[in-house]
Design a protein that fits this description.
- The protein has about 170 residues and is an all-alpha fold.
- The protein folds into two domains: about 80 residues, NADH-ubiquinone/plastoquinone oxidoreductase chain 6, subunit NuoJ (Four Helix Bundle (Hemerythrin (Met), subunit A), Up-down Bundle); about 45 residues.
- The chain has seven helices and no strands.
- Helix 1 runs antiparallel to helix 2 and helix 2 runs antiparallel to helix 3.
- The longest helix is centred in the middle third of the chain and has 26 residues.
- It starts with a helix and ends with a helix.
Length: about 170
């Protein structure tokens, strides 16, 4: 067994355990911290797949910005964990839906096949130019309209949040 297989196994075990802690922790802050650890494990997987841009985005956007929003929301709403309260609301239904989803995904994976269609960007071009440069060139040429629409939507969300916050303070 080589070192990359051992490292992958360790990161996989940490990812699965932290993902289980996300859904089993009674304290929402502990769940959020476990989710951050899961995001870092996913970033490690991206780095192992030689996708450094995706690894960086995983850490910056999800483990950074999104988790800050989630933690602030938890603190703002003052969600408290009630350790004495047992809640098994719709657990059997959730188990059935989870098993059906798992079986459906497995059947799609079993019936699917990998496309052998060659793309415009070969591995040689990726190694010569780099992942980030290629993604940036495509994003700011072919996909500039969706990029700008997304930025306008984010700006509208920020303005709406400020307006709502000012109303609550008055």
């Amino acid at each position: 067994m080589d070192i990359s297989t051992i490292f992958f196994t360790i990161v996989s075990v940490v990812a699965v355990v932290s993902a289980l802690l996300v859904v089993t922790c009674k304290n929402p802050i502990n769940s959020a911290l476990s989710l951050i650890l899961t995001f870092f494990c996913l970033a490690t997987f991206y780095a192992m797949l030689e996708a450094p841009f995706m690894a960086a985005i995983q850490v910056i956007v999800y483990a950074g910005a999104i988790m800050v929003l989630i933690v602030f929301t938890i603190m703002l709403l003052n969600i408290r964990a009630d350790a004495n309260k047992k809640s098994f609301h719709n657990v059997p239904l959730g188990i059935v839906v989870g098993i059906i989803t798992l079986l459906t995904a497995g059947s799609f994976l079993a019936r699917g096949k990998v496309s052998d269609l060659p793309g415009q960007i070969t591995p040689n071009i990726i190694h010569q130019v780099g992942h980030t440069e290629l993604i940036g060139a495509v994003m700011f040429t072919e996909f500039i309209l969706p990029f700008e629409i997304t930025s306008i939507l984010l700006l509208a969300a920020i303005v709406g949040a400020v307006i709502l916050a000012k109303r609550n303070l008055s």
